């Protein structure tokens, strides 16, 4: 091991006789709501994002129920517009963007770098409150019938014609954006300034590199959508004309401003998940990640290149043909570092000692599904193809493969991997593997048919469709039900484990990393003595690996 | 990590320096107002922006101490403005090429 | 692969400094973290204002004559005075930090107050300008009705775009100044009590960075908004 010795059992905790840790350090609502401990704040976020995920899933369920039949027979078309809009807004801004950074990142970043907390604990707590305040504004919109503009708020419909509560929804997202900015800012400063002695940049776990890259995107991109939403609100109230062609404005300008953030936002959603997958693959193949430096730089490359491609959302919106061509080419480029990561993960598995524990099932699922999503991304980056599949279910399937098959699988894998660290408990292995399988199968049944639907021409955001598309839609809805079960089960067994689960011990996976060198659950100050780092992040059986690779015929071990 | 209670590498700028920068900024402000009164066509924009950038750089380097700070600080400042340039620059590529027809191969 | 550990929890002399927060190991680390954090925040501010600057550039390119004619209605003298006032406030802000570095606590307060006064002057001039716009029906919205003969017909909508951007950009800037005044006010009492000296004046430094940034925004706003139509006089 490369760090402190694991603590001997400390003096018994105050009431229960158990070791003092961040969970039993203080009791009562105030100790949670006014905490400055990054680990408690992570738990607060876990509760909030789970609630919003449930809400977003409810909208998804209603959408898929409507789409069981070709006719629009469950909802009014207006209502359907509100359903897919609120599904998008809640899932993107209140789940996918915050989930991994605010839950896993908040919990793990200080632990992984050997720090006592993040650089700005009070700002960390503030970010949770700001997140919920933004959530309240959005809930206000929902309670009053929701918004029907699509999560993309395209003008002039959103600024001029929609009769829904656009402003409160826009303000909700605006406010929550600051929550995101606070988190990103905190991570950047923490990673730069609070690494333990000996923790050089190239000894950092790849989870940290991913979160660093994500934080760069957050800080550079989020403010642009913030000001854009303010402009939308101002235009809506005062009928200004910034985005309204009837008043001299350009709706495409709105789209430039919106997508300048919202495209990098998808990398905010995927990079943390990639960071999780790097950790999982190393731990469950018991091998260092292949090509560590390349993967680290690939994260930065994705963050940078991700800012140069936003126009691929506007190929048919009215941007110039020249701009469209340039964006198309740049969009192909951004696929490269992502693909490189997939190659490196796969190479890590090769000749590794692979064990198919639940977190690894999610990691493997991620690699496969993200690859499909990414390949279809290259397809739609191709200008000639996108002209035909834009605004069809092909696009819907593409981004769900990345966001659900990618991000959510990464999130679930991370939760399952670090749950013992967070709670000190183990969850039932059979149920967790079953859930992973249900998620994988349910996911594919839900979204693969949508590729076909889109290719055959079914438009997105329509509440009725030609009867020949029904079979595929029914398959999709069936898949969604299975997927739902797969998501609900962990909710039950995680909560169950907190009360009845077996104690996990400090390092149930035998993993390598500073976070595993401290008790599970960790003490409030994370480490009893500051770790001193003397070598790299994935030192699993390094000697054996070297022997194997330098003498391929020797087959040691 | 350093354990000192005092900052050994803290730069204390002199009052003279601050006043000199202040004077330069005032002079540049005056200059930009004067130049704006003369019609130089396209150069009006160039000069105005050039003066503004100069003033901003003076504020950054001396009032905001970038001149005496770490490379990371300088990189952060440059990065922020660079990203704004990307936003404006690439968006303008769209606007400036609207209405232009693309050459079709074979014709 | 043996490694050593250092128990740093009790060795840290800076741990006795009353302003050192628990997550940091030294005042130096705390100061570097705080200033880096403030710089990161300023980067977000660049991009926040940046969206408005983009809109300005796009519409200025689209409607150059209407923008120039609209800009005519802005008072260059007042704008120029405000520019000088704000630059002066940056000077006094920088001097307040200098005062901390040479351990002159009363001077810190003098310069902080001077900064606030200059900031208030700026806002006062802005209030006058806004009132003038209101009187001349140049505030975008239902009552937008420029009397200028150059701003009628389709030019009227385009002029409304100019004034929308004018009010949003200067309004957002003014809001940042008001917040800045609040922060400066909050620093007066601790400064007076001698909280800041050469070893520790991080809040002053971070406030200074924020204030200078707000100055830089105005350095760009002034020529872009006020000096467009200046040569057409």
Descriptive account of the structure:
The complex is a heterotrimer of chains A (557), B (107) and C (233). Chain A is mostly helical. In chain A, 66% of the residues lie in helices and 0% in strands. Chain A contains 17 helices and no strands. The longest helix of chain A has 35 residues, at 251-285. By secondary structure, chain B is mainly alpha-helical. Chain B has two domains: 14-64; 70-98. The model of chain B is unreliable at 1-8 (pLDDT under 50). Chain C is elongated. Classes of the chains: A mainly alpha (557), B mainly alpha (107), C mainly alpha (233). Chains in contact: A-B, A-C, B-C. At the B-C interface, helix 1, helix 2 and helix 3 of B face helix 1, helix 3 and helix 6 of C.
Properties at a glance:
heterotrimer; A: 557 residues; mainly alpha; 0% strand; globular; disordered N terminus; B: mainly alpha; 2 domains; 3 helices; 65% helix
Question: Secondary-structure blueprint of this entry?
Answer:
The complex is a heterotrimer of chains A (557), B (107) and C (233).
Chain A (H helix, E strand, L loop, with lengths): L28 H5 L4 H29 L10 H20 L2 H15 L7 H23 L13 H5 L4 H28 L12 H33 L12 H35 L6 H14 L15 H29 L8 H24 L1 H7 L3 H31 L5 H28 L13 H31 L41 H9 L7
Chain B lengths: L14 H22 L5 H22 L7 H26 L11
Chain C lengths: L26 H36 L1 H8 L4 H26 L3 H31 L18 H39 L9 H25 L7
Helix pairs in contact in C: 1-5, 1-6, 2-5, 3-4, 3-6, 4-5, 5-6
Structural domains of chain B: how many: 2
Structural class estimated from helices and strands of chain C: mainly alpha
Judged by helices, strands and strand pairing, the structural class of chain B is mainly alpha
Number-wise, the strands of chain C total 0
CATH class of chain C: Mainly Alpha
Radius of gyration of chain C: 23 Å
Specify the helix fraction band of chain B.
55-70%
Overall radius of gyration of chain B: 21 Å
State the end-to-end CA separation of chain C: 78 Å
Q: Largest interface by residue count?
A: B-C, 53 and 60 residues
Helix and strand succession of chain C? Answer: HHHHHH
DSSP summary: helix tally of chain B: 3
Task: Provide mean pLDDT of chain C, rounded.
Answer: 92
* Main sheet summary of chain B: none
Looking at the chains present, what oligomeric state does this protein adopt?
Answer: heterotrimer
Number of strands of chain B: 0
Residue share in helix of chain C: over 70%
Q: What's the average pLDDT of chain B?
A: 88
Give the CATH H-level superfamily of chain C.
Cytochrome c oxidase, subunit III, four-helix bundle
**Principal-axes shape call of chain B:** flat
Beta fraction of chain C: under 5%
């Amino acid at each position: 091991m490369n760090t402190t010795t694991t603590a001997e059992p400390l003096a018994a905790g105050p009431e229960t006789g158990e070791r003092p840790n961040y969970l039993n350090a203080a009791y009562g609502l105030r100790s949670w709501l006014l905490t400055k401990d990054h680990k408690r704040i992570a738990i607060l976020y876990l509760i909030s994002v789970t609630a919003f995920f449930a809400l977003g899933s409810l909208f998804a369920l209603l959408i898929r129920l409507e789409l069981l039949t070709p006719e629009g027979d469950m909802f009014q078309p207006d209502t359907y517009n509100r359903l897919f809009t609120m599904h998008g807004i809640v899932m993107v801004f209140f789940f996918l963007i915050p989930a991994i950074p605010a839950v896993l990142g908040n919990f793990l970043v200080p632990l992984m770098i050997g720090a006592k907390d993040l650089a700005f604990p009070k700002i960390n707590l503030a970010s949770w409150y700001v997140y919920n305040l933004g959530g309240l504004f959005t809930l206000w919109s929902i309670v009053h019938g929701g918004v029907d503009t699509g999560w993309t708020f395209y003008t002039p419909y959103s600024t001029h014609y929609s009769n829904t509560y656009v402003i409160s929804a826009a303000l909700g997202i605006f406010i929550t954006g600051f929550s995101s900015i606070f988190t990103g800012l905190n991570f950047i400063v923490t990673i730069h300034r609070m690494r333990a002695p000996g923790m050089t940049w190239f000894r950092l776990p790849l989870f940290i590199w991913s979160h660093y890259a994500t934080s760069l995107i957050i800080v550079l991109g989020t403010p642009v959508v913030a000001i854009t939403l303010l402009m939308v609100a101002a235009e809506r109230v005062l009928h200004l004309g910034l985005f309204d062609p009837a008043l001299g404005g350009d709706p495409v300008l709105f789209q430039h401003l919106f997508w300048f953030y919202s495209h990098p936002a998808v990398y905010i959603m995927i990079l943390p998940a990639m960071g999780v997958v790097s950790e999982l693959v190393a731990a469950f193949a018991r091998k260092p990640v292949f090509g560590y430096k390349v993967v680290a730089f690939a994260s930065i490359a994705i963050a940078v290149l991700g800012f140069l491609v936003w126009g691929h959302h506007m190929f048919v919106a009215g941007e110039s043909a020249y701009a469209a061509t340039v964006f198309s080419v740049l969009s192909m480029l951004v696929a490269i570092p992502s693909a490189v990561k997939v190659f490196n993960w796969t190479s890590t598995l090769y000749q590794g000692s692979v064990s198919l524990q639940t977190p690894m099932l999610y990691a493997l699922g991620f690699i496969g599904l993200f690859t499909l999503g990414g390949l279809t991304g290259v397809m739609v980056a191709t200008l000639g193809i996108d002209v035909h599949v834009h605004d069809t279910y092909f696009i819907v399937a593409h981004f769900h493969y990345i966001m659900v098959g990618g991000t959510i699988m990464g999130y679930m894998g991370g939760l399952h991997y670090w749950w013992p660290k967070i709670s000190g408990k183990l969850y039932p292995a059979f149920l967790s593997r079953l859930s992973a399988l249900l998620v994988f199968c349910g996911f594919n049944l839900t979204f693969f048919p949508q590729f076909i639907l889109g290719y055959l021409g079914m438009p997105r955001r329509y509440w009725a469709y030609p009867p020949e598309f029904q079979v595929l839609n029914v398959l999709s809805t069936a898949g969604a039900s299975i997927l739902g079960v797969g998501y609900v089960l962990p909710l039950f067994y995680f909560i169950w484990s907190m009360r009845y689960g077996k104690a996990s011990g400090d390092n149930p996976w035998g993993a390598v990393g500073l976070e595993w060198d401290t008790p599970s659950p960790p003490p409030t100050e994370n480490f009893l003595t500051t770790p001193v780092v003397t070598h790299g992040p994935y030192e699993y059986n390094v000697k054996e690996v070297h022997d194997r690779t330098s003498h391929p015929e020797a087959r040691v071990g | 990590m350093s354990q000192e209670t005092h900052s050994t590498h803290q730069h204390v700028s002199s009052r003279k320096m601050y006043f000199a920068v202040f004077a330069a900024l005032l002079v540049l402000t005056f200059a930009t107002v004067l130049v704006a009164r003369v019609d130089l066509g396209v150069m009006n924009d160039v000069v105005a922006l050039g003066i503004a950038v100069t003033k901003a750089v003076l504020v950054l380097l001396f009032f905001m101490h970038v001149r005496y700070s770490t490379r990371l600080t300088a990189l952060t400042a440059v990065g922020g403005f660079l990203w704004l340039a990307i936003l404006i620059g690439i968006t303008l590529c769209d606007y400036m090429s609207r209405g232009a027809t693309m050459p079709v191969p074979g014709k | 692969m043996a490694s050593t550990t250092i128990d740093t929890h009790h060795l840290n002399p800076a741990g006795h400094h009353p302003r050192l927060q628990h997550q940091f190991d030294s005042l130096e680390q705390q100061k570097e973290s705080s200033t880096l954090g403030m710089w990161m925040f300023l980067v977000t501010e660049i991009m926040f204002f940046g969206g408005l600057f983009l809109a300005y550039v796009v519409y200025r390119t689209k409607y150059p004559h209407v923008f120039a004619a609209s800009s005519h209605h802005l008072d260059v003298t007042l704008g120029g005075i405000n520019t000088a006032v704000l630059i002066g406030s940056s000077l006094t802000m920088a001097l307040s930090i200098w005062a901390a570095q040479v351990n002159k606590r009363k001077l810190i307060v003098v310069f902080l107050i001077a900064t606030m006064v200059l900031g208030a002057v700026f806002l006062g001039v802005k209030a006058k300008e806004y009132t003038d716009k209101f009187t001349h029906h140049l505030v975008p919205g239902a009552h937008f009705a420029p009397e200028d003969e150059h701003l009628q017909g389709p030019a009227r909508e385009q002029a409304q775009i100019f004034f929308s951007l004018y009010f949003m950009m200067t309004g957002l800037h003014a809001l940042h100044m008001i917040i800045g005044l609040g922060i400066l006010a909050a620093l007066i009492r601790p400064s007076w009590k001698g909280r800041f000296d050469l070893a520790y004046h991080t809040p002053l430094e971070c406030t200074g960075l924020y204030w200078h940034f707000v100055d830089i925004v105005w350095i760009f706003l002034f020529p872009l908004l006020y000096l467009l139509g200046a040569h057409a006089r």
